[in-house]
Specification:
There is one protein chain. The chain has 16 helices and three strands. It is 74% helix and 6% strand. About 2% of the residues have low confidence. By secondary structure, the protein is mainly alpha-helical. The chain is globular. Helix 10 packs across helix 11 and helix 12 runs antiparallel to helix 13.
Length: 399
């Protein structure tokens, strides 16, 4: 259960936060281990609609970096985690690290303790930590995880860069259009109609849309929200619809190819990291299925895993699936033949990451004039529909 608590530190400073505990007594004991004395504790009865807030990626990057440095310095794991817990500012992540310490003190390994927090540590992280523990290369694994998280953060920033400008321009266009339709057009409507001339078709359409917006503005606000929420719950509860939507995403113009490159780059980077840590190929492929974030690609990986299980080589299995480009298949074949599969996959990830950066730049250069043209055409249609009849009347006035 999740509790909201108020506690006081040894220095008398009041602390507020949330912590998982069995009951209030367990909550008090856990806070004691964090050098805090419980003042009040209240059970959180209702969770957010979309689940708990995830831990920011920079926090996880810092966690891997500091734990790697402490491990390389020979600091015992529990001491290192305790130091980390005291230095973490994010309240939710601080609680997670505190629970990790408790579980390890109870006899669990670091990977087993992490496995109890799937919303924070993915299966990829758990498997890599487990491999590092069994091979005695935990610092190296933590360094690889930190590099991978930094790479994902950079990739996410490129994706946001691609989406932010169109979203900003679309917001401006919608706001300007709604303002004109609700405020400006109704004021000009009576003036144009009082001229006594037949209105052209585009002007009639403009006035009709303006009347709809003025009379039923609440429907225009609620309908998109209801449609988005309805689609969200329908897709979440319908695996076939989710698969079809993921397929449509990969076929979208401009955005689709970039999304596919991002997914393949993430797959190659994670696969290489898992395989280089000594995890078998089949288990590595099975683990990457959970991180690609696209059901079409996931099903393709499942088919490739089944083909390899039946005796097909890795390159042949990925070729037979038909979803992976020749670059991926060729690199896999070279890696298999030379015994450097992890290096080949890292090369795939490097090429795709570079390609994503270039594609995002090209897409931005293409989207900007298209949005400007669309905005100009929309505002031009509104102005022409209003000014056109006025100009016709003025042109017929005898000089």
């Amino acid at each position: 259960m999740l509790f909201d608590y108020k506690a006081v530190s040894g220095e008398g400073r009041m602390t507020y936060g949330r912590l998982d505990a069995i009951n209030l007594i367990d909550l008090e004991m856990r806070l004691k281990r964090m050098d805090l004395d419980l003042v009040t504790g209240k059970l959180v009865e209702q969770r957010s609609l979309f689940g708990r807030r995830s831990i920011p990626r920079p926090e996880l990057i810092n966690f891997c970096f500091h734990l790697e440095q402490l491990a390389r310095s020979g600091v015992p794991l529990l001491d290192g985690l305790t130091d980390l817990r005291d230095s973490i500012e994010h309240p939710r992540f601080r609680e997670v690290v505190a629970v990790l310490i408790e579980n390890i003190e109870g006899g669990q390994t670091l990977s087993q303790a992490m496995e109890t927090h799937p919303d924070v540590f993915s299966q990829v992280v758990v498997n890599l930590i487990r491999a590092g523990e069994s091979s005695g290369q935990l610092p190296e694994v933590l360094a690889s995880l930190g590099d991978s998280l930094r790479w994902e953060d950079e990739l996410a920033s490129h994706t946001k860069k691609l989406l932010m400008y169109p979203a900003f321009v679309a917001t401006i266009v919608i706001a300007a259009t709604v303002f004109l339709m609700i405020y400006m057009v109704p004021q000009l409507k009576m003036f144009v109609k009082n001229m006594g001339h037949a209105l052209p078709l585009q002007t009639q359409i403009l006035f009709f849309v303006s009347d709809l917006l003025v009379d039923y503005w609440y429907l225009f606000l609620l309908t998109p929200v209801a449609a988005v929420l309805g689609a969200h719950f329908f897709i979440r509860g319908n695996p076939l619809a989710r698969t079809r939507l993921d397929g449509i995403k990969l076929r979208l113009p401009v955005v689709g190819p970039i999304l596919k490159k991002i997914i393949l780059s993430r797959f190659a980077n994670t696969f290489a990291m898992l395989y280089a840590s000594g995890i078998p190929i089949l288990e590595s492929i099975r683990t990457t299925q959970d991180i690609v974030g696209n059901r079409v690609v996931r099903h393709a990986l499942e088919r490739a895993e089944q083909s390899i299980r039946e005796g097909r080589n890795v390159a042949g299995a990925f070729h037979d699936v038909g979803l992976f480009p020749p670059l991926v298949v060729r690199m896999l074949r070279v890696g298999e033949n030379t015994g450097g599969l992890d290096k080949a996959l890292l090369n795939v990830s490097y090429f795709y990451t570079r390609d994503v950066k270039e594609s995002v730049g090209k897409a931005q250069a293409l989207i900007e004039p298209m949005l400007t043209l669309f905005m100009g055409a929309l505002l031009g249609w509104i102005m022409l529909s209003v000014i056109g009849p006025i100009y016709d009347v003025i042109s017929k006035i005898p000089t």
